[in-house]
Amino acid sequence: MQAVAQGLAEAGIAVRWETVRRPAALRFPALRDGYTQKLVAGYDLLERSLDVVLPIHVGHIALATCLSWLEFRELPGFRGRPKLTQWFDDFSRRASMKATPLSGETRD
Fold first, then answer.
1. Which fold has domain 2-98?
2. DSSP string covering 27-90, please?
């Protein structure tokens, strides 16, 4: 799960570069689309195989923080997948997630 979260984060960063960060004249839509497909494939994999085994492990934390960042940056979303959405919403109610929200203007 941690590896999938890392892959999602890397794909999300790449999509962000090709949509917001890189100067418009240098953006490559085909690259953005390829990374977007990777996000979708990762979401689909998690929808099929997400484990909710306790105790919580580093993979759960990595996935929750990654999904939180992807939403914060308004990148292609996972919300159309009910199992993944429910897992994330449940995990987001944890005190640790509430104590560390992503908000405001940041630099990346």
1. Glutathione S-transferase Yfyf (Class Pi); Chain A, domain 2 (1.20.1050)
2. --HHHHHHHHHHHHHHHHHHHHH---PSSP-HHHHHHHHHHHHHHHTTPSP-TT-HHHHHHHHH
